[in-house]
Fold:
Amino acid sequence: MYYYSMSNSSQDQKEYHRNRYARTREAQLENQRVYLQNQVVQARRAEKEPCVCGVIVSKRHMKNHLETAIHKLFLENPEEHKKYIDRLKKEKEENPKYKCPCGSKMKNQASVLAKHKKSDKHLKWEETQ
Structure:
């Protein structure tokens, strides 16, 4: 591998990295597109596993889940966790999701509906109608 001799000035380093980024950006984006369209990669990223607290989480998000308040509540006080989960389930049953004619399901709340009506999916659906 060939290394450029660079002075230690930060301006030269910034310019070098800016040029390198511009030179390699398209190739990197294409490699990323090909990688993410690979069926094996998609299957691996979609794998989910149950946590001890009862939540089903993808492997790549498990580390973040272990730091959430719900998981910590389960570890500290399982009874309170159960009450909390039961309350969430009850609220979910009492407040069903809004089903948009475009096929989306979302929380039945004015701000959420207004934001959805500006989304690409909804606008594309409106164009076809």
Notes: Residues 66 and 119 are 32 Å apart (CA to CA). Residues 10-46 form one domain.
